[in-house]
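Newbie here. three chains, one complex. Structure please?
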Amino acid sequence: MNQDLIRTIQEKFPAQVTGTHAFRGDSTVTVRREALREVAGYLRDELGFEFLMDLTAVDYPEREDRFEMVYHFYSFKTNLRLRLKAPVNGKEPLIASLTPLWGAANWFEREAYDMFGIKFEGHPDLRRILMYDTFEGHPLRKDYPLKKRQPRIVHRE
Amino acid sequence: MGLETAFGHSFFTSRVDDAVNWARKYSFFQYPFVTACCGMEFMSVWASSYDIARFGAEFPRFSPRQADVLFVVGTVNEKLAPVLKRVYDQMCEPKWVVSFGVCATSGGFYDNYATVQGIDKIIPVDIYIPGCPPRPEAVLDALMKLQEKVSAESVMDKKYK
Amino acid sequence: METKTINSIPKTWEMEDLGNGRMVLNMGPSHPAMHGIVRILLTVEGERVVDSDVEIGYLHRGFEKTCENVTYNQVIPYTDRLNYVSPFINNVGFALAIEKLMDIETPERCKYLRVIMSELGRLEDHLTCIGANAMEQGAFTVYFYLINAREFLYQLTDSVAGGRVTPAYARVGGVTGDLPPDFKAKTAEVFRKVRKNLGDADKLLTRNRIFFDRMRGTGAISKRDAISMSFTGPVLRACGVPYDVRKATPYLVYDRFDFDIPVGDNGDNYDRYLVRMEEIKQSMRIVEQALAQIPEGPIRHADFNVILPAKEEVYGNIEALMAHFKLTYEGIKPTAGEIYQAVEGGNGELGYYVVSDGSGKPYRVRVRPPCFTLMAGLSKLINGGYIADIISTFGQINMIGGELER
């Protein structure tokens, strides 16, 4: 079932899919950054993945493309799950926004922006969501120290 | 002494402090500044099984200007710190602060970029309740401790400068 | 008439007059009628909400960053404090995720224990949600009835896990303890009381004119929009989509129980309330079936490299002693890889995405919090309604700060 799904996507986008794997029953497809919206649109409209369950990023500082966007899709019709990944360059982290396709992408992408500093092209309202405006840096990057605090008001004592 | 003999048992004398403190300690109007998990136990204390009303402290006031005791229930992070400060500043004196649970007391096991390591970095605290979250019995104990503390105060004190 | 867009809503604490009879009203972060700390900037025209902007992050505690710096089993207490109303489900979800990563199965009895505790957690969640929601609308008695019912459940789970709100019950490869001997009888007694209190609450609320009028038709969303916003859980089911992880992709032993997934048709607050009321009854059904079916046997995985061996083993067996030492200092070391494990939380799909690099600490732990998407859709639900409707909608969204902002 999962193998069929991966093959379908590979055949549809032979030039854009850079890698696939299935691990412990989770199928993963990695695509080029530029093709993300096209592939996601195909998943939603043709393959019936109507839920964007999760959207996040992972930081790999030693890689050439430092960040990896991770999207989890779920189809209620076929009861299948799929993980889509897209590498993003660390110097200028930019990727297409999925807000035109899923309303849920709005806050998810704001969180990824807040935590990793990845910018989303076409996002209507990209600003910090969990941290405050005066906060500098992006806490979930591996190079942000765990205990580096940036108080908003002066502490006592 | 003299007054009772003159007026009989319809009368008794006391100190102003005792009378005022007696009134204060049995009618805490609390402001529950509920942020996190501890709120669940706070709800339990409030409900009928533990019945905080026995101590005259059941009535929450969500306007800081009408509250006597600020219960800071749960984690306070850097983003929320100015809000807590502002709520505290708006309260009229006399006012007391109870730090409910370890997160409010010391940051608990959240020691990272986001959290404040104890609300006493922001506002003065009278009573700390340990526990993550504290069991309701601990909260009631803290309330009695606060009552003791209040009864030792004087109306002439200038605590909060 | 010109309207200010969301972006230009001023970030002040004050009320601001925009002219045109409109003004910006600041609701929260500490607001009497809202449990949880969230700030909503409302553009109102009289009593009508024209536009709104929801600001979260007041309980961001750096959960995901912290997880990258502790061992796998040390993450479990942190998961308690995600959705602190139903902590067992979080524990179980995380343990399942790591077990999937390590490709191991827990013994039968452990699976049943996890189901029982998860469902008790769900009961606590729904009782709190309905009780608090009713209180915020003025029905204080209902709050007492339901919180009392929850109190009985707390005492019940306390007797198993040794903690009321934050039990840290699950471990990778097992659970911390078995049921106490009189658990079945106690559960029957507690459920009798819960059913009684629930019946009382039902009589007070369901056909109550005031409650009905405040819930029916408010905060409604269409099925299509709900799916686009990735709503899950009772809020999605109230729109008529019978999606429940327990049925769609059964984990543990959920496929062995007979239970129903209640759905609504209107997607409004009243349907959400009805769905939750029914789910409470279904959860009790599951627990009763599980208690009838539960087999005897071990509650931990047999492999010493997964879970701490029993104390007798540690004292009497050198290999167990070494395993104990290694597990305590280095923790378990799953193979490198990445997995996503979803469980049905109190508010919907709770997903853990875990990336392992083969060391004793997770490389990345991501939680898909169910009420994150719900809160993202809150503006959609409250725009166009009255200010007073926000209270009922927000209550039924059941925002839990711990999992929303982590």
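Moderator note: The beta strands of chain B are 30-34, 69-73, 96-100, 127-129. Chain B has a mean pLDDT of 84. Thread marked as resolved.
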